[in-house]
UniProtKB/TrEMBL annotation, chain A:
Protein source organism: Anoxybacteroides rupiense
Record Pfam families: DrsE_2
Taxonomic classification: Bacteria, Bacillati, Bacillota, Bacilli, Bacillales
InterPro entries associated with the record: DsrE2-like (IPR032836), DsrEFH-like (IPR027396)
Name of the protein described by the UniProt record: DsrE/DsrF/DrsH-like family protein
Domain of life: Bacteria
TrEMBL record, chain B:
Pfam families: TusA (PF01206)
Organism encoding this protein: Anoxybacteroides rupiense
The protein's name in its UniProt record: Sulfurtransferase TusA family protein
Domain annotation UPF0033: ranges: 7-31
Family: Belongs to the sulfur carrier protein TusA family.
Amino acid sequence: MADNKKKTTIVLFSGDYDKAMAAYIIANGAAAYDHEVTIFHTFWGLNALRKDEAIPVQKSFLEKMFAKMMPRGADKMGLSRMNFAGVGPRLIKSVMKKHHTMPLPQLIEMAQEQGVKLVACQMTVDLLGLTQEELIEGVEFAGVAAYLADASEGNVNLFI
Amino acid sequence: MNIAKVVDAKGLSCPMPLVKSKKAIDQLASGEVIEVKTTDKGAKKDLAAWAQASGHQLMDMKEENGVFTFWIKKA
């Protein structure tokens, strides 16, 4: 049974709250469709996987700058449109509350609960100066070959 | 109709009605029925598509005062 399951893969390149939400809603939906789902996080998409607290790790000056300038965790991400220097996300989150829409951090939790495989691209993890300890538990680390192995069998492959 | 489990997804938006239905149906045996209640207008098409794709049978559906109720039989 496990072998004839359909597969969905999503590349989350973007570090925007709204785009990451779309990715995670599709991932949760696909998991409910009984697909084997993998989300590959690369570049700015990695920020969705960051823990929201500061983790004491050894970093170079440039890496420290990166760590400061990038959102620490899914909840801190900005919007791709109408961000208004951080006011936009606060507005949309209050609207989401009214509509009982699940916020991004909970969507990520639910995806993990549903067995969605979360993968961090090792090359960009290194490039952005991130370390394994700074990312949430349960994340796997891999490269392009692992992605292609899944995507070449994928029924749904998205780049967000 | 014998209902093995009721899923109350009223007030919740996409993808929750789908995810909750899936979680509920996973706990059932083949041939058992879940009842799903939702107020999400998108769920009408969503649950029908999901049931068909997963092989479950959408037995009936009704809309009453903005609440959609679905009965889905597990494959």
